[in-house]
Amino acid sequence: MDELKRRRLSASARLVRMPDTICCNAELTVNLPREATLALFTAEGERAWAPGWDPAFPAPQRTEGSGAVFVTAQAEETTTWVMVDQDERGVRYARFTPAPRPAPSP
Q1: Closest of 31, 43, 38, 106 to residue 80, by C-alpha
Q2: How far apart are CA 73 and CA 16, in angstroms?
Q3: Which residues constitute the domain of residue 53?
Q4: What whole-number distance in Å separates Cα of residue 27 and Cα of residue 39?
Q5: Does some domain include residue 15?
Q6: Is the pTM of this model over 0.70?
Q7: Is 34 part of any domain?
Q8: Would residue 40 count as lying in a domain?
Q9: Total domains present in the chain
Q10: Cα→Cα distances 93→34, 41, 82, 103, Å
Q11: Weakest-pLDDT range from 7-16, 18-27, 29-38, 89-98
Q12: Backbone phi and psi for residue 41, each to the nearest 5 degrees, phi listed first
């Protein structure tokens, strides 16, 4: 086996494969009309009941509807949220929180 091929095999053996998608679902019962309930689970609506919830909008004119983006921060962690879709039945979000990276060595 030539040296280049051996190096490639060695490097690929160190790769860790992660799932492409992780799905989480929850079901809640809220004793309010549907429209009022759904309003509680928007970026702005959660301010009323979630302590410390303070979303920031990169595009302030776009706070709701499919494609709306907002960012939340807690401690050292920043999460970006994208509204996938929103209709009279519910709302779906995709979110990602980058893993912290160590500072490069000098």
Answers
A1: 43
A2: 27
A3: 26-96
A4: 16
A5: no
A6: no
A7: yes
A8: yes
A9: 1
A10: 18, 10, 6, 31
A11: 7-16
A12: -110, 25
